[in-house]
């Protein structure tokens, strides 16, 4: 796991733009396999601080208008104000692009004059976390889909009477083993 704390030794001065860029790049490395597998090589990844604003009952993240104006899905994870990891599971979230963001998300202005839109954490979709990424047999969404109308080719031992019954039973056994592996991967 990357320790991003050592990328910012001068906490009182805040992060420089270069330090922020380096920390975001280091944080993104954890999720790069997901982006590659899903074909989202240029995915918009913006780590954010999750917090409970005064007068609110739930957690929010906030995005600058310039970030939402990109008209893209945003991938995020929870970090501190100094871009240090806040979630030991390194959960990757998706904020699906909302074309009505200007009207639907509350606009707040910070004490330093910066405007941001509040988005409830409950609207973020969990993509995966370290426990998902550490499974040796993780299946990508594009690798396998099982549907109701899917047929499995199970041989019929009665279809060819000249074939040895033991061979047919072995074929059925192998099909059942394959099917069991597929089901086990889906339920993990």
Quick rundown:
The chain has 188 residues and is an alpha+beta fold.
Structural class: alpha+beta
Counted by DSSP, the helix tally is 6
Number of strands: 7
Strand order of the largest sheet: 1-3-4-7
Low-confidence stretches: 136-144, 146-150
Helix content: 25-40%
Strand content: 5-15%
Shape: elongated
- Our count of domains comes out at 2
Mean pLDDT over all positions: 82
Distance between the termini: 23 Å
Round the Cα radius of gyration to an integer and report it. Answer: 24 Å
Protein architecture, described:
The protein has 188 residues and is an alpha+beta fold. It has two domains: 4-133, no CATH class; 144-188. The chain has six helices and seven strands. The strands form two sheets. It has a four-stranded mixed sheet. It has a three-stranded antiparallel sheet with strand order 2-6-5. The longest helix has 23 residues, at 165-187. The protein is elongated. The model is unreliable at 136-144 and 146-150 (pLDDT under 50).
Topology diagram in text:
Blueprint: H1 17-29, H2 32-37, E1 44-45, E2 60-63, H3 65-68, E3 74-76, E4 92-95, H4 101-104, E5 107-109, E6 115-120, E7 125-128, H5 130-133, H6 165-187
Parallel strand pairs: 1-3
Antiparallel strand pairs: 2-6, 3-4, 4-7, 5-6
